[in-house]
Amino acid sequence: xxxxxxxxxxxxxxxxxxxxxxxxxxxxxxxxxxxxxxxxxxxxxxxxxxxxxxxxxxxxxxxxxxxxxxxxxxxxxxxxxxxxxxxxxxxxxxxxxxxxxxxxxxxxxxxxxxxxxxxxxxxxxxxxxxxxxxxxxxxxxxxxxxxxxxxxxxxxxxxxxxxxxxxxxxxxxxxxxxxxxxxxxxxxxxxxxxxxxxxxxxxxxxxxxxxxxxxxxxxxxxxxxxxxxxxxxxxxxxxxxxxxxxxxxxxxxxxxxxxxxxxxxxxxxxxxxxxxxxxxxxxxxxxxxxxxxxxxxxxxxxxxxxxxxxxxxxxxxxxxxxxxxxxxxxxxxxxxxxxxxxxxxxxxxxxxxxxxxxxxxxx
Length: 363
Description:
Layout: H1 2-14, H2 18-31, H3 41-44, H4 49-59, H5 64-75, H6 83-95, H7 102-119, H8 129-139, H9 143-153, H10 162-178, H11 183-197, H12 203-207, H13 213-226, H14 230-241, H15 248-263, H16 266-273, H17 289-305, H18 309-322, H19 327-339, H20 344-359
Helix pairs in contact: 1-2, 4-5, 4-6, 6-7, 8-9, 9-10, 10-11, 13-14, 13-15, 14-15, 15-16, 16-17, 17-18, 17-19, 18-19, 19-20
């Protein structure tokens, strides 16, 4: 039964768009215990670069001649392949070659794994040790320590891909932001670290950002509608709707909600997200837990903006028990209490001030 389901999955994959195909194909290979299901891929699409090269990888340990035929089939269709497919081909083809250099193969293969893990919303699976420690410090709200640690390591990031380099500095920016530091600190990181890195000729890493395109587009729709450029935001929104059906439900609901939120149509935005919204259900758009949580914060604000302060109090009190050091949530709780005329607003405000002063001290 499981074999039949996996074959059916590949039938759908091979008939879908490249993004849909890449995502499902890659995730299935990671999760399934019967890796030989990849041999179904070339049967449904003999021209598929990914299907052929991954079939070659599966066969390489016990049937090299057959593996080589699949690898050559993949190579013959590289002219029509996406940058990501070409990167996967390069990594796997080198990995199964007779003249393989282990260090080179691991470097190429690690880039492929990194991209897949981010798309699955599980970047922790591919993180280097220093970034894992940063994640721990962030989740424990030890922002000052996280920043000092990451900035101390930053000199070693020059050899990282643009993807990894930018993500490392993104963590630093988030720590400053969550810790209540001046917004100028965050802008400085984006201007002098992240944006500057985009000038580097790192084509594979830059083009491989497809996995986060959904997240970036949704955030761009929000930004455009917020600053009044609703025409361009609407064009991007309609473009998002026309893409793969695999992510259409997850991405469109969020995209339409942030579009309405940016325009100030708070009731419409809240209705789109629903009364039991949880951003964790939307990780499939290609975001980590920290990145996806911004949509939870939008939902909390929408509750307040639509006058549902009593519901907001219930939700925020429950959430703060899990994330006690979240400064932003304490500010929202303070606002919620104030709207309800509750005395607890004072204590919530004091807690927020105490957290703010404990994270960073600025003159």
